[in-house]
Amino acid sequence: MKFCALLACKNRDVKNKKTSGIKHHVFPSEDAIRGQWISFVNKFNRTLDWTTKANKGAYLSEDHFEKDLYSQSGCLVHHAVPTKDPNLLQKRPLR
């Protein structure tokens, strides 16, 4: 089951991700970028030891990334790092 790794994310508990229209991104395999994603999660979850190994279904929802981090085809660019505070996001209506 996919879920947004950020506890405060308004899209964390979306029941049907296919019909919601919300993209969830898998953590990157490149260590440097993956580390930045994990630091982002730890910052907002107020943890120091969160890892993707212990949370295999963890993803980050598209709302944590700036719009300019997406290619024209709608894919997240290779070097993308999340920056948007989950506490400031509003729950989006289902499409």
UniProtKB/TrEMBL annotation:
Coiled coil stretches, renumbered: none
Q: Which domain of life is it from?
A: Eukaryota
**What keywords would UniProt list here?**
DNA-binding, Metal-binding, Zinc, Zinc-finger
Q: Where do the THAP-type domain residues begin and end?
A: 1-85
GO MF annotation terms: DNA binding; zinc ion binding
Indicate yes or no for the key word Magnesium: no
Name of the featured protein: THAP domain-containing protein 6-like
What organism is recorded for this protein? Thrips palmi (Melon thrips)
Gene name, please? Answer: LOC117641874
